[in-house]
Task: inverse folding
């Protein structure tokens, strides 16, 4: 088991390296270079040369990659092209905001959807299951902003329970922060919970159709005992993997939901960076998203190894 | 009535009707729009009336007209993306399965790396470097999305290449491309059709989300995601202006999903059962 975990950790580090290279290469594949693309066709050769130097484009690209990576490892993500601010200073509070929002949504969504998913699976084909199927299919099919608007109209416009803009600022109290982020977190929860519920349901169902479950039923164990003692411990691994997969939807959802509620998170920073074509900011945000994502996935895989009953004994 | 030798249930019929309506509007839209696309015929965010069924947008253009014109752009871009994505994904996936060896390893590892971070993040990076124009948008998303198609196509191809008839074709000296086209593709087509629907939904929502962020299809083209963005301030006054385009997006994706669900339920049945139905 420990070897498996170490392997997985090593794979995580390798993935991170590969991803950082991918992000760097993506910003390098432009025909010509970033400087001429950003300055457009009004650029004079002199201004291009100055701009290239400023971006460090006069250094060969493999050296630039190592410089960038080395800097990133030391918390130096460079300086924004457009407003010359130090990226890491701008990024840190926003990263906290985003993680707070995503964590809030995950804390509600994971128990809710895993519980309902198991419930739908053990009631397969009955009313509960069918209702859950139709509702989640609809939730999956609609765009993130539509869900957000459907929440805003009753909860903000009619009832006035929540503010429609989720502006958080430094020094805000915890209670206030919770109040302000509840609506975006609720929207995110709905988005992620639907996927998670469907996938939890199908992974429990696939365990329920395996031979040892039939065996347990045949030897006369009660239904609740089969589910609690035989099915769930073996379904735990797949369910954790499902949760990790859904972090992808959470990360994608967070970018759009932040835009709807004008929430000062890292998604907004990245979208602004893309709109202004500020390459260092885009690289930095992309890297941070990738690191968070790969770390969570690695963590989930390790947890799945730890809870897998088949890997528990010493070989 | 039967389609592909099966009787669709009610939900699938609803889905098919929604898809047909959307395609009809996308093709013949300009002929049936009540006003012209750029004409201001009312005030900002006028509410629904007999003259303007869905009200007006942020500069007083008729919402229904904009929706009808937007259908062509929104659906067309998503469809083009999905077709390109499938062409790339299927070609590479089947090649990897049939050729195996270093080709397979190289493509598979590259796909693993791309899929190890969310596609939206990669799409944002590429759009940030190239700037957003419709060809860039279509190509970027098609290439990123083809990684998912690749995985499915490779898995399907892997199962088929070991079968006798592929072996027979190989032994009688057929070329790789011929084997892919004549032996593998026809036998893998059923799961690929339902995957096409799913990928279309994904790309459609993906482009809508990018347009909503202001990074997808750019004005003056009318597109549903962009229309939500342009009208988003109205929501704070409780006006429905951004809801209509968002609803148009939702209805089409729900429709496609209903059909895909039905297709998947056909495939899930074993071959013998299928013959009896």
Result:
């Amino acid at each position: 088991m420990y070897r498996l975990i170490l392997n997985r950790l090593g794979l995580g580090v390798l993935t991170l390296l590969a991803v950082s290279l991918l992000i760097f290469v993506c910003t390098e594949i432009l025909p010509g270079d970033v400087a001429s693309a950003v300055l457009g066709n009004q650029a004079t050769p002199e201004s291009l040369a100055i701009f290239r130097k400023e971006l460090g484009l006069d250094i060969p690209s493999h050296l630039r990659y190592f410089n960038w990576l080395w800097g990133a490892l030391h918390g130096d993500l460079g300086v924004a092209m457009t407003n010359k601010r130090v990226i890491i200073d701008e990024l840190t509070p926003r990263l906290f905001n985003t993680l707070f929002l995503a964590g809030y949504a995950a804390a509600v969504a994971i128990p809710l959807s895993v519980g309902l998913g198991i419930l739908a699976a053990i009631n397969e084909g009955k009313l509960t299951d069918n209702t859950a199927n139709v509702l989640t299919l609809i939730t999956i099919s609609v765009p993130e902003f539509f869900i957000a608007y459907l929440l805003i109209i009753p909860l903000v416009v009619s009832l006035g329970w929540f503010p429609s803009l989720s502006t958080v600022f430094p020094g805000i109290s915890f209670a206030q922060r919770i109040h302000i982020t509840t609506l975006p977190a609720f929207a995110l929860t709905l988005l992620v919970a639907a996927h998670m519920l469907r996938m939890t349901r199908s992974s429990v169902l696939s365990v329920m159709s395996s031979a040892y479950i039939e065996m347990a039923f045949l030897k006369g164990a009660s239904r609740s005992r089969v589910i609690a003692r035989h099915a769930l411990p073996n379904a735990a691994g797949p369910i954790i993997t499902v949760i990790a997969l859904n972090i992808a939807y959470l990360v994608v959802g967070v970018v759009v939901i932040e835009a709807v509620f004008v929430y000062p998170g890292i998604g907004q920073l990245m979208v602004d960076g893309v709109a202004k074509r500020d390459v260092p900011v885009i690289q930095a945000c992309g890297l941070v998203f990738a690191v968070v994502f790969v770390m969570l996935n690695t963590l989930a895989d390790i947890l799945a190894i730890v809870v897998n009953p088949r890997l528990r004994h010493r070989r | 009535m039967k389609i592909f030798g099966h009787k669709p249930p009610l939900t699938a019929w609803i889905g098919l009707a929604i898809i047909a309506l959307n395609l009809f509007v996308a093709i013949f839209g300009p002929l049936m729009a009540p006003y012209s696309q750029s004409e201001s015929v009312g005030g900002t965010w006028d509410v629904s009336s007999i003259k303007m069924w869905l009200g007006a947008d942020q500069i007083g253009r008729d919402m229904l007209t904009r929706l009808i014109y937007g259908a062509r752009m929104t659906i067309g871009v998503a469809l083009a993306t999905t077709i390109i994505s499938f062409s790339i994904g299927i070609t590479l996936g089947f090649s990897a399965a049939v050729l195996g060896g270093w080709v397979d390893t190289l493509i598979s590892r590259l796909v693993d790396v791309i899929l190890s971070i969310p596609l939206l993040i990669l799409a944002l990076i590429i759009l940030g470097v190239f700037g957003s124009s419709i060809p860039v948008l279509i190509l970027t998303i098609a290439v990123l999305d083809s990684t998912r198609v690749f995985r499915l196509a490779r898995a399907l191809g892997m199962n088929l290449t070991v079968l006798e008839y592929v072996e027979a074709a190989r032994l009688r000296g057929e070329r790789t491309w011929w084997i892919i086209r004549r032996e593998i593709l026809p036998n893998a087509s059923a799961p690929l059709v339902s995957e096409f629907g799913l990928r279309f939904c994904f790309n459609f929502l993906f482009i809508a989300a990018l347009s909503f962020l202001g990074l997808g299809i750019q004005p003056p083209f009318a597109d549903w995601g962009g229309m939500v963005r342009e009208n988003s301030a109205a929501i704070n006054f409780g006006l429905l202006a951004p809801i209509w385009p968002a609803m148009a997006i939702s209805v089409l994706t729900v429709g496609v999903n209903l059909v895909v669900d039905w297709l998947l339920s056909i495939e899930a049945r074993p071959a013998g059962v299928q013959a009896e139905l």
Notes: Residues 269-277 of chain B have pLDDT under 50 and may be disordered. Residues 82 and 200 of chain B are 6 Å apart (CA to CA). Chain B has one domain: 61-274.
